[in-house]
Design a protein that fits this description.
By secondary structure, the chain is α+β, with helices and mostly antiparallel strands. It contains eleven helices and seven strands. Helix 3 runs parallel beside helix 5 and helix 4 runs parallel beside helix 6. The radius of gyration is 43 Å and the shape is rod-shaped. It is about 60% helix and about 10% strand.
Length: about 425
């Protein structure tokens, strides 16, 4: 069953969608009101208006019909509608006595002009309309100039101007609020897209670190196994065991990283913690098993290391040792150091390899290279507000040095750290 409020709401929506029909209905209602008012005698004796004592003239009825017809186009041609209704009202005051209430149409037209133009225009047009109609009523009417009918013309036209200006101001206020809300929504969407892009970049760096590290170890151990399979089967079995361990570790880390892409309702969400310096010994052992001697000169694992910094330090060491194993050449040795200096943690990875810097992925000496290792490390460190330098060492070898703040300052520009003074190329 349709309720009365819902019926009014539907009618209001229909009239809003069909403004011409609304204006035609309004014009018809104004015409009925003007004709009914024309049967009232203002009552010159001071006893108030009386109905049924007079009948409107045909000329007055014609003016009322024309004035109501002008209101049908009040939205499209508001100034023209005001000019027509104002002229017809002035004509009624000049030629008819007592005049019919044609001024009702002028009040509606003046309200429309005030609600659809700016305030200075409203003041100018309103004062002009009030002045012309009030003077016409005072000068050409048979009643005294101070009669309530003449003052009523001035009051009604003034209230129409004020009401239209108030409606216009409220519409502007509501539009401004709506525009601010839409702009805030767009800003939130842009922020969400930016965060998604940053998260994708972070996940891509993690995938690169995991895949590059473990696949390099698998490749080395598989090569060893193939080389000694016939002559030293025991060493081949040991190499294959390292391949199995490296592949299992790679799968576990990939499961954790890809698990970040799961939806909140997906089953079997990963619960394994992200790798960090707590498993540095296991990381170093994988390289030692692959034939790369690694010495841990210092490993500060004290409390209070933020999770983001802990993960970044682990990834930097992992990628740096992977590059040593792949590019430093035979007989290379590596040294890892993690030292806390004040409010920063310094990670250093050195090697004495004889491989050229051109073999290092991401090195600036190879702009055409396809590697992203050092580039990914630098992006990861810079994202936390730290600094990273990487380049050949004097006398041979390569050096990677990262400075990470213990309190991540995401988005700060990269500042040169103490390592920048050692002569490495950034």
């Amino acid at each position: 069953m349709t309720t009365l409020p819902s019926g009014f709401a539907r009618a209001r929506r229909w009239l809003r969608d069909h403004p011409l029909a609304f204006d035609a209905t309004l014009a018809f209602c104004v015409l009925i009101a003007m004709i009914c008012g024309s049967f009232a005698d203002p009552g010159k004796g001071g006893h108030g208006p009386t109905f049924g004592t007079r009948t409107p003239e045909a000329f007055s009825v014609l003016l009322m019909v024309l004035a109501a017809s002008a209101l049908v186009l009040r939205r499209r041609h508001s100034m023209a509608a005001l000019a027509v209704t104002g002229g017809l009202t002035a004509t009624e005051y000049i030629f008819m006595d007592p005049p019919a209430p044609v001024v009702m149409s002028t009040v509606i037209a003046l309200y429309t002009v005030a609600s659809r133009t700016d305030r200075p225009t409203t003041w100018r047009v309103g004062l002009l309309t009030m002045g012309i109609l009030t003077m016409a009523a005072m000068v050409f009417g048979s009643t005294p100039w101070y009669s309530q009918e003449n003052l009523g013309v001035f009051a009604w036209t003034g209230m129409a101007s004020a009401a239209g200006d108030a409606v216009r101001s409220r519409r502007a206020f509501v539009d401004a609020i709506r525009e601010r809300a839409e702009r805030a929504e767009r800003t939130r969407e842009e922020e969400a897209r930016r965060r998604v892009a940053e998260e994708r970049l972070r996940i891509a760096r993690d995938l690169h670190d995991v895949v590059a590290h473990h696949i390099a170890l698998v490749n080395v151990q598989a090569g060893v196994a193939a080389h000694v399979m016939d002559k030293r089967p025991d060493q081949a079995k040991e190499a294959l065991a390292h391949v199995r361990d490296a592949s299992r570790s790679a799968l576990n880390e990939l499961r954790v990283t890809v698990g970040l892409l799961r939806q909140s309702g997906d089953p079997e969400a990963p619960t394994e913690p992200a790798p960090g310096l707590a498993v540095l010994d296991e990381l170093v052992d994988t390289f030692r098993n692959a034939g790369l001697p690694v010495e841990v000169a210092g490993a500060d694992r004290g409390p209070g290391l933020p999770a983001a910094v802990d993960l970044a330090a682990y990834r930097v060491i992992q990628e740096a040792l992977t590059n040593v194993r792949k590019h430093a050449g035979a007989g290379a040795r590596a040294e890892v150091s993690v030292v806390r200096v004040g409010t920063t943690a310094e990670i250093t990875v050195l090697d004495n390899g004889r491989g050229s810097a051109a073999g290092r992925p991401g090195a600036e000496s190879t702009p055409d290279g396809g590697g992203h290792g050092l580039l990914g490390m630098r992006e990861r460190v810079t994202a936390l507000g730290g600094a990273l330098t990487a380049g050949p060492r004097y006398g041979g070898g390569f050096r990677v040095h990262a400075i990470l703040p213990l309190e991540a300052r995401t988005g700060e520009p990269e500042q040169p750290g103490p390592a920048a003074a050692t002569g490495e190329r950034r």
